[in-house]
Amino acid sequence: MSVNQQDLDPDSTTEVEDVTDAEEELIKECEELWKDMEECQNKLSLVGTETLTESNAQLSLLIMQMKCLTAELSQWQKETPKIIPLNEEVLLTLGKEEFQKLRHDLELVLSTIQSKNEKLKEDLEREQQWLKEQQQLLESLNVLHKELKQQVVTVSESRIFNELKTKMHDIKEYKEKLLITLGEFLEDHFPLPDRNVKKKKKNVQESTAQLITLHEMLEILLNRLFDVPHDPYVKISDSFWPPYIELLLRNGIALRHPEDPTRIRLEAYHQ
Predict the structure, then answer these.
(1) Using CA atoms, how far apart are residues 4 and 16, in angstroms rounded to an integer?
(2) pTM here?
(3) Total Cβ atoms within 10 A of residue 207
(4) What is the strand order of the sheet 254-256 is part of?
(5) Where are the residues of the annotated region Disordered (predicted)?
(6) Cα–Cα distance, 265 to 234 (Å, whole number)
(7) Residue 85's pLDDT is what?
(8) Do residues 41 and 66 make contact, with C-beta atoms less than 8 angstroms apart?
(9) Buried-exposed string 78-108: b where 16+ CB fall within 10 A, e elsewhere
(10) pLDDT tens-digit profile of 21-54?
């Protein structure tokens, strides 16, 4: 070993010393391991060579492993580590080997990544196809929803229109019934005055105008109230019998004009 150290340059001498120290440290660790194994073997020999049961199969396996390690350790102790000369040619060779190994590992990594990329590409295409199908399905459902919504609106509007039409018809029938009942009540209880009855005041000239019934008077006032709501007053004519006018005024059914007492209107009960 001294001859090799003389052939090397000063820089390589330091490196050789480092290798020698590492070798000695390795041998020292092997010796300590050998001592531990000898102690274990001595302890096992004290136990005896009894036949192992099935429950002690694991112990038998450990003993076999120990024997294998003992033989391997003995083989390593017989061999002398070879010191690699640290010249430029050897370093170049080692560098090439490490480079080739690194290149091989990188090629494996590249192949793996490419395989993963291909798989991811296939997954992406499959997901895009699925998304496209889902979008088409969503568009179809939206169109169907709009159609159903329009049908529902049409059916709803038609139903509401029919209901309102039925209600209007019922209201008209009820109105006609009320008018007929009111007319019958007024004809029975408020008839026209008897023209055969002589007037108490003979100096008053008998009016030649045709008197109308109370029912007709109320219809005139009611139509005026709804047809011309901004001016609901009606001019009192000779066809209005004065007792009926007084009856309407006294019971609050009709009101006089505040400035023209010859005009009256029907009370707006609906407001």
Answers:
(1) 9
(2) 0.37
(3) 10
(4) 234-235, 263-266, 254-256
(5) 1-21
(6) 6
(7) 62
(8) yes
(9) eeeeeeeebeeeeeeeeeeeeeeeeeeeeee
(10) 777 887 888 888 888 787 777 776 665 555 555 5
Helices (H), the chain: 2-7, 10-47, 57-78, 88-189, 214-227, 242-250
Q: What does DSSP assign to residue 180?
A: H
User: Which tokens in the block code for residue 31?
Assistant: 């010796």
Exposure string over 237-254, b if 16+ CB within 10 A, otherwise e: eeebbeebbeebeeeeeb
> Per-domain residue ranges for the chain?
89-155, 156-190, 210-270
Q: Is 255 helix (H, G, I), strand (E, B) or coil?
A: strand
Higher pLDDT residue, 34 or 118? 118
Question: At which residue do the structure tokens 């450990």 appear?
Answer: 62
The 8-class DSSP code of residue 253 comes to: S
Q: Report which secondary-structure segment, H or E, holds 234.
A: strand 234-235
Q: What tokens does 6 get?
A: 């003389």
**Mean pLDDT of the residues in the chain:** 79
Handedness of CA 15, 17, 21, 23 (dihedral sign): positive
